[in-house]
Amino acid sequence: MKRLVIGTRGSALALAQVNLTEAALAKVLPELSTVRQIFITRGDQKLDLNLLVKGEGGGKGLFTRELEDVLTAGTIDVAVHSLKDLPGHNPQGLEIVAVLERAPTADVLVGKLPGGLDGLPQGARVGTSSIRRARQLAWLRPDLRIEEWRGNVPTRLRKLREREDVAATVLAEAGLRRLGYVMEDGRLKCEGGEFYAASLAEKLLPAIGQGAVALQARSDRPEVIEVLRAINHAPTMFAIRAEREVQRLLSGDCSLPVGVRSEIRGGVLVLHGVLFGQEGEAPRTALAEGAEPEAVARELVAQLR
């Protein structure tokens, strides 16, 4: 195979992930040429959807369906996704054949005051479009006022700068780093100034697949699969097999209020999980470990249920 057609969204983060994919391919297959095709997904178009409200149009395929449709049609050879955006089930005939090495999975509280989550004043407003983040924040700090925020990373940072009544937002560390934002000495430097930045790694469990880039292809394209598997990062794939099985078993999508953190210790996979039910109820937490990812996932889900 001499030419690979890559499908992607047009956001800065999506294009940064394509850059990583192309760089990985160039290292192992320097003779391979790549072509990008950019598509607009429903999630990019429908910026008025409130993803914090069940039934408002979030969920399965919001940021991925259009890419999967053109992949199925053969318009592109591979779709590059943020893994956390993908539903638990691949459409028929498609599969995730490779993943890039995972970036840090932590969420980061980006705000106008030091002290992280504990430093936010009583009743502070926090902007996020993630149900998982919103439910975990509300459980840890019931006094906070969670406001639905849509948009890419630069847009959310601009909103934070412009909105005097909002104290902070929550963003993925992986996305911040891939976009070149500098985080040092508890601060995040960005266009127009800087904010305080505090890792929430010890407070919030990340989204399923957070920090991972997925390469999705048609199952009947062995030549494409062979190319992509040349850049697959095996430890990341080992972990996300379990995480996506958790997602599948819970019949979930990217809007499910579940958090999962994976650790690999000497060939053993350790999964930490949290699942929220009705608002006001205590979350269910679980811990499972083992050497077979899908079995670990089944154990975790059994505990969460």
In CATH, the topology of the largest domain is named: D-Maltodextrin-Binding Protein, domain 2
Helix content: 25-40%
Radius of gyration: 19 Å
Identify the CATH class of the largest domain: Alpha Beta
Task: Tell me the structural class.
Answer: alpha/beta
Strand order of the largest sheet: 7-6-8-5-11-10-9
User: Superfamily at the CATH H level of the largest domain?
Assistant: Periplasmic binding protein-like II
Using the 3D structure, state the CATH architecture of the largest domain. 3-Layer(aba) Sandwich
* Uncertain residue ranges: 54-58
How many strand segments? 15
Strand portion, in percent? 25-35%
What global shape is seen?
Answer: globular
Taken in chain order, the helices and strands follow as EHEHHEEEEHEHEHEEEEHHEEEH
Number of DSSP helices? 9
Q: Please, what is the average pLDDT?
A: 91
Task: Report the biggest beta sheet as strand number plus sense, adding barrel if it closes.
Answer: 7 strands, mixed
The total tally of domains equals: 2
Walk me through this protein's architecture.
The protein is of the alpha/beta class and 305 residues long. The protein folds into 2 domains: 198 residues, D-Maltodextrin-Binding Protein, domain 2; 93 residues, D-Maltodextrin-Binding Protein, domain 2, CATH 3.40.190. It is built from 9 helices and 15 strands. A 7-stranded mixed beta sheet has the order 7-6-8-5-11-10-9, with helices on both faces. Strands 2-1-3-12-4 form a 5-stranded mixed beta sheet, with helices on both faces. A hairpin with an 8-residue loop joins strand 14 and strand 15. The longest helix is centred in the first third of the chain and has 17 residues. The protein is globular.
